[in-house]
Amino acid sequence: MTLEITESVLLAAGDHVQRQLESLKTLGVMLALDDFGTGYASLAYLQRFPVDILKIDRTFTAQIAPTTEPVLLKGIIELGSALGLTLIAEGIETVRAASDRAAARLATARKASISATRNASR
User: Fold this and answer.
1) Which of 4, 23, 34, 50 is most buried when burial is the number of CB atoms within 10 A of its CB?
2) Which domains does the chain have, with CATH numbers?
3) What is the pLDDT of residue 2?
4) pLDDT digits (tens, 9 = 90+) for 19-64
5) pTM for the model
């Protein structure tokens, strides 16, 4: 089971919410941070809260074009990967659905990250 929470929930969170999320984790619930990059949450929240999945908001993926270098998107991917998080790029579900080369690279990076995260947890 996966519980999706938004950055705004983490912003309002106190110590009691952190304890509740940690309790859910002990029950086997995975936590997904939805719409990442659209709120005002501190990057420190990625280490403070027991998040498993980082869902990158589609505002970062909608602007991908073969002639554009998605610097912020790459940074988010590298950050999530360094923290061992599963990454989901909203708006890009499969390589087949991706219509340009940059989107295909992102979808491939997503699969590699998911694979690496799964292998690391074994």
Assistant:
1) 34
2) 2-120 (3.20.20.450)
3) 92
4) 888 999 999 999 999 888 777 767 878 888 889 999 988 887 776 6
5) 0.69
